[in-house]
Task: inverse folding
């Protein structure tokens, strides 16, 4: 019985091996590609990865960050909106700063009123009071003087008619009345002279200081509203009401990092392509005025000619598109910027990756190769991909 079981298992193993050999030996047709690989349109062309941007005279897309930390009160725009320069985009919670600004405004107004009061001196009513006090002092002086003269004359005529104490008292009252009259006169002259120039200048500086503090607070208050720095299109809004914004941007939920609050581009009637040429291919580039290039949109058969704009004359590490360095060596690339008008019926957006071919220069003659040139065509390779 045991031998029969072993014999059956052996036959089953042989059959399984034959079936497996038949299945593995059968040839399968490869699946067709999702889209046709991008061909090199030139007899000898330099391949580079590119990224679509908004067309600008310098820089890339505009990232907007707040200049202070605050909570979002209201978002006034949405993605895709076209905005004008200076148009408000986001309002931040400015309740504390608004109260501080109002307080400084009131302090500056109070200092200005005090300055006006100093400049308006002497006040007519104060001058009249000082004049009346002087007149009263003079009248009192005349009365006291008359009494003193009478007592002194009587004492001179008959020393026994008036006591020595009465004479001294009358004399002292006369001198006190003289001093009071002089004091009233000086007070009148002081009131008439108005404010001391040093007091006026001190109050002027106080008013200027508070005014500048108010202007600074008002300027800071204006920063609680994020405004469009140019005419353009809102491409991304990464904040909502209640979000906490810092000068580093806003917390990105999915990446765990910081991201710009708003990303804007210029009006997208014309777009740009920034491509990155490997440093070992830079010497093959033609002169700037002779650069010709073509862009292929990935996933389509669309090919768009590009107009040369500028070269960013700074070779940088190959980090632009991924923000990561995965190579063990320091690979560097040269950024070149082209521009083009988006064809009708094709949707293209900033941030989209494309393939770019640049017609290369022949090092030996300095002329572009003809279509019959035997020089091999540069194909996309990992070393050329930034």
Result:
């Amino acid at each position: 019985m045991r031998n029969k079981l072993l014999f059956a298992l052996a036959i089953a193993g042989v059959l399984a091996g034959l079936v497996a050999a038949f299945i593995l030996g059968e040839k399968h047709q490869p699946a067709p590609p999702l889209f046709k690989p991008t061909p090199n349109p030139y007899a000898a062309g330099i391949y580079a990865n590119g990224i679509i941007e908004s067309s600008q005279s310098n820089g890339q897309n505009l990232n907007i960050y707040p200049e202070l930390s605050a909570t979002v009160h209201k978002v006034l725009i949405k993605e895709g909106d076209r905005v004008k320069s200076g148009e408000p985009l986001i309002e931040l919670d400015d309740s504390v700063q608004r109260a501080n600004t109002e307080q400084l405004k009131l302090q500056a107004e109070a200092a200005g009123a005090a300055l006006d009061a100093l400049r308006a001196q002497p006040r007519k009513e104060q001058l009249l009071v000082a004049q009346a006090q002087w007149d009263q002092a003079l009248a009192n002086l005349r009365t006291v003087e008359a009494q003193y003269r009478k007592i002194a004359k009587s004492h001179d005529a008959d020393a026994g008619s008036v006591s020595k104490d009465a004479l001294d008292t009358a004399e002292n009252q006369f001198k006190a009345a003289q001093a009071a009259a002089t004091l009233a006169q000086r007070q009148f002259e002081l009131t008439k002279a108005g404010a001391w120039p040093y007091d006026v200048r001190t109050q002027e500086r106080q008013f200027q200081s508070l005014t500048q503090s108010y202007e600074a607070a008002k300027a800071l208050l204006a920063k609680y509203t994020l405004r469009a720095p140019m005419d353009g299109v809102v491409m991304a809004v990464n904040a909502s009401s209640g979000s906490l914004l810092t000068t580093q941007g806003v917390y990105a939920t999915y990446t765990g990092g910081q991201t710009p609050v708003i990303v804007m581009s210029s009006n997208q009637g014309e777009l740009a392509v920034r491509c990155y040429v490997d440093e070992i291919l830079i010497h093959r580039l033609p002169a700037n005025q002779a650069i010709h290039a073509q862009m292929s949109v990935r996933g389509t058969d669309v090919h768009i000619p590009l107009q040369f704009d500028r070269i960013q004359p700074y070779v940088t590490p190959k980090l632009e598109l991924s923000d990561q360095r995965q190579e063990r060596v320091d690979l560097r690339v040269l950024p070149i910027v082209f521009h083009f008008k988006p064809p009708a019926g094709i949707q293209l957006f900033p941030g989209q990756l494309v393939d770019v071919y640049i017609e290369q220069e022949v090092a030996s003659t300095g002329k572009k190769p003809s279509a019959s040139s035997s020089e091999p065509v540069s194909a996309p390779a990992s070393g050329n991909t930034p």
User: Anything to note?
Assistant: The longest strand covers residues 45-54.
